[in-house]
Each structure stands twice: as C-alpha cells, then as structure tokens.
Amino acid sequence: TIIEAKQSVRKFPDGFIFGAATASYQIEGGWDADGKTENIWDHMTHKEPCLIADCSNGDVADDSYNLYKRDVEMMRELGLQFYRFSLSWNRILPTSFPDKINEAGVQYYNNLINEMLKYNIEPMITLYHWDLPQKLQDMGGWANPHIVDWFADYARVAFENFGDRVKYWITMNEPREVCYQGYGDVTKAPRLNMKGIGEYMCAKNLLVAHAKAYDIYDKEFREKWGGTVGITLSATWHEPEGDMDADLAETINQFEWGQYAHPIFSETGDFPPIMKEMIAAKSAEQGFYRSRLPEFTPEELELVRGSSDFLGINHYSTFLVRKIDERDSFEVPSYWDDMEIVGYQPEEWEGGASSWLKVVPSGFYKLLHRLRELYDNPPIMITENGFSTRGGLEDDNRVSYYRLYLDAMLDAMDEGCDVIGYAAWSLMDNFEWMQGYTERFGLYEVDYSSPERTRTPRKAAFVYKEILRSRSLDPNYVPDTTVMTID
Ligand SMILES: O=S(=O)(O)CCCN1CCN(CCO[C@@H]2O[C@H](CO)[C@@H](O)[C@H](O)[C@H]2O)CC1
Q1: Of 412, 411, 414, 386, whose CA–CA distance to 400 is shortest?
Q2: Strand order, beta sheet including 318-323
Q3: How far apart are CA 391 and CA 400, in angstroms?
C-alpha cells in the first residue's frame, strides 16, 4: 500500500527542535578502555556470542569512544539543534557505586559535550539505555529494590559532572523493553525470563528509581542550572481490526506504555487500573497469595506521580490486536496471558529490515492524540523515530518513512498535540541489540570492515538536513547527494 505524503510544503512551528539519537553500548566501543568495567551486554555477548544474529558485539561498534569528533562533525553537517546520547554507567563508576569515579570516563563525556557546545549543539543525556553494570545484575539488578539507591547515586554523579552544561536529561530509555524483554522474556539482556513476575518487579523498582533521580535533580540542581528531566517510553500504537472492540487495543496500550506513563503522568498515579485488575484476578486464579503486580507504598506513589517535566516517546510502528486463542501457547503466568491479547502485523504491510517495523504513519497520529487525551496534553519530545534497512546509500524507503511520519506528526500538532521536538533514530548505523549489525537505522552508513569505521551520509541524511535547514517538509525535494557540506 503506497501511502502518499501530502503534496504541499509544510512548515514546522518556531521553537520546535530537531536532533538525532544514539546510545552508549550501541556506538561507543571501548568496552574495557581506561577503566570501564563490564555491563550486562558485554557479559552476555562475550558469554554467548551467537545469541546475536551475526555473532557480533559492541566491543568496538562505531568506535565513538575514539571518533566522537567525527560524530560532532556529522551533527554539524546535518544542522542538528540537539544530540541525544546515553552515558555508560560503569564507564563513569567502575564499581557501579560512587566510591570511585573513573576520570577517563568522565573526560570522554566532557570532551563530547564540550565539542558539541563549541558548535551550539545541545546535549540531551539519557542516564540509562540498557547497559546495566554486570555486578548490579549479579545482585538482582532491577528486581532488587536497592537499585533505587544505586541508580539515584549514579544519577547524582552525572548531574554533578555534566549538569552545568547539559539542560535536557532523560532518566530511562524504554522501561518496557528493559523489564518485559530483559526480565520477562529472553529477547534482551539479562534474559532472566521470569515470566509474569520479573517484569513487574522490574517495572516498579525502575519507576521508583526514575522518580528518585528526578527528585534529586529537582531538589539539588534545578535551582542553579534550570534544566529539565523526563523519561523516554517505547510506545507502539495498537488498534482493533474491523469490528473488534476498541477496549482490547486500549488494554494492550495500557500494558505496553500505560504501565509506565500512568504512574507518572496521570492524575491519580499508580499502575493503570486495568493492569491491576487483570493481574490480580489472574494471580488469584493461579493460587498466588497476592497479586504478581507489586504495589507502590503511599510515599512511592507520591514520589512517582508527576516525576517528569516532559514525556519522551520512541515510536516506530503499529500493531493490530486480537484475543488469544487456541493458536497461541503463552506460558502461565506471563505478560501476554495476563492481558489475553496478542499484537500482530498483516504480512502485506510495507516494512523495514526489522520484523516489527511496518510503515503505518496513521498509528503515530493516533498515538499522539491518545497521549494528549490520557495525560492532559503533556509536552512530548519524540526521542526516537526511524527506519531500518539492510544497508546501502540510496535509501528511498527511509526517506519516505521520515516524510510520512513527520507529516503525521504535523497533523497531530496542528490539532493541539504539544510535541516540542524530534530526534531521528539514528545518527548512524549501530549495534542493533540481538540483531547485531544486520539491521541499519543510520542516517549515516557505518563501514564495519574499516578500522576507521567510516561514516557516509545516506540520501536520508541529505533530506533530513534540508528539513532542518528549511524548517519545512517538502515531499518533492530531491537532494544533491554528491557532497555533504557544513553550512
Ligand atoms: O510487542 S512485542 O514485544 O512483540 C514487539 C513490539 C515492538 N517493539 C516495540 C519496542 N521497540 C523498541 C525499539 O528500541 C529502540 O529502538 C531502536 C531500534 O530498535 C533501538 O536501537 C534503540 O536502542 C531502542 O531505544 C522494538 C519493537
């Protein structure tokens, strides 16, 4: 189905900011350089290399640990206003705790931040983008309530060292992927697979940890530095097919991103009521003495509610939903059995290299309106949106994806959704987790066969550059891709 972008040229509002995003484990390399210690992705990829599609890892990745000046040059070529990147917890704190600060690690991030500020590119830091210190995972990781203080102590060190120059902070990247895929399944490190139990313990502790970090910024740093702190949620849009009742779609949206948005952005706080009801009923049925969904204490509820200045959203695609039936065999207990719903995407939908990435711009539009309705129109920063291919510079399908999704976003903004900025995922190809380097998301292609990890702009980089330069969306713009300049 060819989805036509509108033919008119559309302007972005003044004040709207454009960027691009990456993450530490996916780009830095230097996995054990200058005192950095092991995280759960180092550990997993070294222990079982071929869990990754191409048996690769992030030991070197894009080598941004050494090539960050080229990265900043690329940001200048694109004309980025901001760049979202994440800190490697144990590049800064080798023991995971603040008893020892690794000056070389702090220096790397200071070098990157200072190089960006030299060219007026705003740094946006994600404190946690999945690379937990292995030592903390050995002590239970996100299932251990002590992680609240471990994370808060780490956050304070980051605020102290970079907060004078960094005004945009994101505590967590995609809690649902951390908890469901890492603790309730085997599709992300640490692959604990404690279905129906681990992901909910992780969810509660991670939310409290996030809130404690927010509170620290609020009380100890906001007065003197005036930055903003938010959280980034992965938000897939789900919708009913045909005459299926809309409640099914609403339930899976609430289990997927409402699980984290409701405790922070809703009037009442706490997990979504539908989640509490369904998991409590299932737990009783299954003989548990108490619900498998942990409870917040009254103090925790208060700490979490309202603990974000903006809502970061990573959106890529849309799923249809159906009730679980005899075709399915979800384990009991499990996240999927708890909601008795499953998402799926029709074969004929046009997609990217990632199995779950179908081109459905209308889903983005609907998601933005739903978030506006549910949480009283919070300021939303699109912290990731992008398209994967198998490689190649003539990426017309990536160009089309960006145009369609930015067009859908402008429609939602024209109708009142408070979207304040947008970051393309990703500045350059990088380690795509369990898919290794087989799925490419970069505006710039990275050559992994060259020790220099040469970065080359794709057609989409030239188109994105023009969108940022003209601050408008022209579906008929044809870029001259012969040379990339810094304007
Ligand atoms: O419901 S299911 O579990 O059957 C599948 C739902 C679809 N998921 C939604 C979340 N998305 C996270 C994307 O993950 C984000 O996007 C980038 C590209 O993957 C990563 O490289 C980034 O690190 C990450 O922040 C992966 C696909």
Answers
A1: 386
A2: 237-240, 318-323, 341-344
A3: 16
What Å distances lie between residue 156 and 127, 135, 188, 210, 270, CA to CA? 10, 20, 27, 12, 25
**Its pTM surpasses 0.90:** yes
| 385 pocket-lining for ligand 1 (C-beta < 6 Å) | no
Distance 102 CA to ligand 1 centre (A): 31
Distance 177 CA to ligand 1 centre (A): 7
Locate the ligand 1 atom nearest the alpha carbon of residue 441 and give its number: 18
Q: Which residue has the tokens 């009923």?
A: 281
Atom of ligand 1 nearest to the CA of 433: 21
Q: What does each C-alpha distance from 348 to 259, 351, 403, 445 come to in angstroms?
A: 30, 9, 21, 28
State residue 120 phi and psi, 5-degree precision: 55, 40
Closest CA to 26 of 130, 98, 100, 173: 130
Nearest-Å Rg of the Cα atoms of the chain is 21
Tokens of 231: 């959280």
Question: pLDDT tens across 111-163, in order?
Answer: 999 999 999 999 999 999 999 999 999 999 999 999 999 999 999 999 999 99
What value of ipTM does the predicted structure carry?
Answer: 0.96
Q: Please tell me the distance from the alpha carbon of residue 144 to that of residue 137, in angstroms, as a whole number.
A: 9
